Amino acid sequence: MKPCKVLIADDDRNLTFILRAHLANAGFEVVICGNGREGLEKAKQEKPDVILLDIQMPIMDGLEVTRALRADADTENIPVILLTSRGSKDDIVLGLDAGAQDYVVKPFDIGELTARVRSMISLGRAQQEIDELNRRLKDEVESKTKRLELLYKYVRDLNRATSEREIYDLVIEAVQNATGCRRVSIMTPDIEREKLICKKAVGISPSVAEKVCIERNSGIAGQVFTTGRTVVAKALDGETGSDRHYATHDFLSTPLISTFMMSGEERLGVLNATDKPDGSPFTPEEIECLCSIAGSAAIALHNEEHRSGLTKSIRALLRTVGLLSEFRDEETGLHLERVAEYSKILGKRLSEKPEYAAIATPGFVEDLYQAAPLHDVGKVGICDDILNKPGKLTDEEYQIMKTHTTIGQRTLSLAMEETGPNPLLKMCVDIAHCHHERWDGNGYPRGISGEDIPLAARIVALVDAYDAITSQRCYKQASSHEETIEIIKNDSGKHFDPGIVSAFLEVLDQFDEIRSQKADSAAELVSAI
Q1: How far apart are CA 457 and CA 314, in angstroms?
Q2: Are 409 and 438 in contact, with CB atoms under 8 Å apart?
Q3: What phi and psi, each to the nearest 5 degrees, are found at residue 103?
Q4: Is it true that the peptide bond before 189 is cis, omega within 30 degrees of 0?
Q5: Starting from the edge strand earliest in sequence, which strands make up the sheet with 102-105, in order?
Q6: Which among 454, 450, 428 is positioned nearest to 495, based on CA atoms?
Q7: C-alpha span between 243 and 252 (Å, rounded)
Q8: How many CB atoms within 10 Å of residue 490?
Q9: Which residues of 423-453 are buried (b: 16+ CB within 10 A; e: fewer)?
Q10: What is residue 468's three-state secondary structure?
Q11: Contact yes or no for 52/7 (Cβ under 8 A)
């Protein structure tokens, strides 16, 4: 064991000679200095376990040296014992205030001094151990805090994910942030649930990943999926054997962790992570974190599957319900199809504009395409005499016709009460209720204005007007595409949102193309007259 080092700074050569002899005989390594400045330099160089300082020294006295030692991060924790021939209380207070741990008055007993040196070294080492423990605790707290923050952000983002692909991307990102692994893969069962295929991977060639297909009972990944138990593999230090080949030779790398993704009793897949930059084994904290990531991913995937199935059912139902208004209204023809297409075109263009992009997401545009045809679903509650009247409506009849907005809103709201909150149904309600509101507040049924009108309803208000103006009815001729553009431009800021009119003017060719492709047939026009 390396001997403890004692630094002595004193200009009394006889005293330092005696101290060196006794302390060396007691098993200490001794370094001698003749003045305070040299003592300070030696303390920085030698890093002694304890320092003996004479207060009265040339160049720098003991108190100055002590203060300098305490001001330097490299020497601030080295114990200091001051040696002096002055033993008044004021002198002792000055020494302790300067940062010394002990104070010995000359002349002193060499055995007592030796004991005090040993005591200071023990205290110094105890302080070092406490500092090291505090450092480890601080690192552990910071590490756990960072991991909790990572998991919080990950779960928050999972809750906002709108597709399976987005969930997979979040899982990969979370695993890499938590462990630094350069190779991460997600495997899920195929349709027959007999084999596992790679759904998402990083650090693996795409051509290799897409070919991965293993029996559900084969390899580590298959065993994890079948048993529902996490497997952690450590490095084999060059050993060979079949155990090295995990699922396939393409995943040969150590250490490795493979954990299951399960929601309730349903096993949805396996999460694999390997190739840590430093090659170290996975820590218990990392293993726990990866299991949490996999568990949260399973819940998100289960919810997304349920949400996707519900959305498909809702869309199918909405298409059927939308047809009801078409069958009731003899003048609609292909009106609903055109409105859907126009809405999608306009929604896409708005998604490219900064002021609308936050709302007009790809999901919003797709929902808009599905919801727009239901704008007049409330007309199923309007009697045929009014709905299909060939001439102009009376004021009383027009008031009744206007109620189709509130009828549609009430009907679709009932559906939403059954299914719970659903973005698509909510948009259907907004459109059915508000597509006759005006930007200037002079619309119906609520008379709201500006951005108080839902964006989807503002979009449908314009496309519905465009289609109505460009379509022939029993009581009017169709206006040309060019004439309709001028009418809509003139109503910008009055009937229509100016921003939406601006976007409309950028996609005129697409509107005209849909108008031509999906024009009502001559037979439909004749039957409506």
Answers
A1: 19
A2: no
A3: -145, 125
A4: no
A5: 29-33, 5-9, 50-54, 80-84, 102-105
A6: 450
A7: 10
A8: 12
A9: ebbbbbbbbbbbbbbbbeeebeebebeeeeb
A10: helix
A11: yes
Does this model's pTM top 0.85?
A: no
* SS3 assignment, position 232: strand
Give residue 257's region: left, alpha or beta (phi > 0; psi -120 to 50): beta
Q: How far apart are CA 253 and CA 246, in angstroms?
A: 8
Which two three-digit tokens encode residue 527?
A: 């039957």
Q: Please list the helix, strand and coil fractions of the chain in percent, rounded to the nearest 5, in that order.
A: 60, 10, 30
CB 35 within 8 A of CB 50: no
Tell me the angle at which helices 423-434 and 404-419 cross, rounded to the nearest 10 degrees: 170
Residue 77's Cβ-side half-sphere holds a number of Cα atoms within 13 Å equal to 14
**Per-residue pLDDT for the chain (529 aa), expressed as one digit of tens each?**
678 899 999 988 888 898 999 999 989 999 999 898 999 999 999 899 999 998 888 888 888 999 999 999 888 888 999 888 776 677 778 888 888 888 888 888 888 888 888 888 888 888 888 888 888 888 888 878 888 888 889 889 888 887 888 999 999 999 999 888 999 999 998 877 788 988 889 988 888 888 888 887 788 888 898 888 898 887 544 443 334 333 333 444 468 899 988 887 788 889 999 988 888 888 888 898 899 999 998 888 888 877 777 667 666 666 666 666 666 555 555 888 899 999 999 999 999 999 999 999 998 999 999 899 889 888 888 888 888 887 788 999 999 999 999 999 998 888 777 666 678 889 999 999 999 999 999 999 999 999 999 999 999 999 999 999 998 776 678 899 999 999 999 999 999 999 999 999 999 999 999 999 988 754 444 344 4
| Radius of gyration of the chain measured on its C-alpha atoms | 41
Number of residues in the chain: 529
Looking at residue 280, the DSSP 8-state letter turns out to be: P
Give Cα 144 to chain centroid, integer Å: 17
Report how far residue 185's alpha carbon sits from residue 384's, in angstroms, rounded to the nearest whole number. Answer: 60
Rounded to an integer, what distance in angstroms lies between the CA atom of residue 173 and that of residue 92? 61
Q: Which residue type does 496 have?
A: F
